[in-house]
Structure formats: C-alpha cells, structure tokens
Amino acid sequence: MGRCGYYAWRYRAPSARAIEYARLLEKIRAVHVQYRQACGSNKTWHLLREQGEVCERHRVAPLRREHGIEATRMRRFRAGYAARNSEQAAENVLNRQFAAEPPDAVWVADFTFVPTRQVWLYLAIMLDLYARKVVRWAMNASNNRQLVCDALNMAIAHRQPVAGLLHHSDRCNTHTSVQYLRLLERHGMNISMSRIGNRRDNAVAESFFANLKNELTFHHDFRT
After folding, report:
1. Of 41, 66, 91, which marks where a domain is finished?
2. 94 and 201 share one domain
3. pLDDT of 62-107, one tens digit each?
4. Dihedral Cα 179, 132, 217, 62, nearest 10 deg
5. Reduced to 3 states, what is the DSSP secondary structure of residue 78?
6. Residue 76 lies in a domain
7. Residue 108, H or E segment
8. Is this structure's pTM higher than 0.90?
9. CB-based burial label for 59 (10 Å; 0-12, 13-18, 19+)
C-alpha cells in the first residue's frame, strides 16, 4: 500500500457495515449483562429478536467470539468413588425414556447444593416428566434423608398420584435409605435408579439443575 492509500484508509470514515456491527455488538453486550452472562450465541440471538432487533443468526456468534463474550458456566464435578462402587439398589427401569404420559406417570428425583456465606444450602426436587415441571421441592442446610423425604411427601400431598407411578433417582445414600424406600413402597410407587456413576440416566433433573445454576444462582453471592 502506498502512502496516499495508507492515509486514505487511516482517515476514512467507518463504513455502514462497521457502524451496524458496532451497534449490534453493544446490543449483544447488553443482553450478556442483563442475563447474567448465562446465554450462548443461539439464545442471545433469540433474545435480540424478542427485543425487536433484526439480525442474522450467523452474525451473533462471530461477534461474540471476536470480542471474547462467552457464557459463564459452573464447574462440573466427577462422580465420587463411593457412587461408582456401591451396590445397585434398583434396576434402571426408566432407561432414559424421558417422554411420559399422562401426568404423574413418571417422577424423577434429585438434589443439588447452593453455596452461601453461612452454610451449603441443599435443594431436593421432584419433577414430573410429563411437562418437565417441578412438582414440589424442599430445602435444608443438611443433606440428609429428611430432605428428600420432605420433597417426596410434599409432592404426594400436592398431586396425590395413583399407585403405579414410576419414581426414578440416582443411587445416592439418601434415595437408597430404608426410610425413603419404605415411603415409596407405602404409596405404591415403582422404583427405578440410574446406573453407577451415569448421570445421563437422570438427564432431565441434571439439565434442570444446570439451568437453575447457570441462569440464577451461579452468579449470585448469597450471604445467608
């Protein structure tokens, strides 16, 4: 490039395309902050369209990548030694068949934790596969049998399912406890449990917790 060409390029006004990309980038950054840095490219594009922004899907991802805009994700934990080497408490009857009809035909149970400045807060849920909706939940500062029993009892009281409902969970010591299993049997529920160390066998509950943490709790510092 010659001297004249360089100075012409150096002082040339931004093109219409560059101005449009800069404007779109600001919109992307605003969505990124508004939704707690939890959205990927596809979800960002949908949110921009909901806000009335007309743009192509393939424009969003390159702009995010070029300017280092990435969704913040929680760290994933490996399955513990005890979970991989425990005895099977029940067969995997569900076998990843995550479509269920009618309502209250299949419930999946799981629990997770949310850190606070004071203690770990444990959250147990009961989720109906029919609508992927959490039926009831329980929270406690202790990860014990009472936590999961409370979630199950509240779900039963709320929905009053008929006998024969399939209850699926992983094989943690709370879900395999005598107290919890007797509660399931007393209400005529069939029992299904994930295979050893295989989180995909309870993928719907795992997906719910991932969304809960990535979109709400992971970015928040709870004092109590």
Report:
1. 66
2. yes
3. 889 888 888 877 655 544 544 444 445 789 999 999 988 899 999 9
4. 150
5. coil
6. no
7. strand 106-115
8. no
9. middle
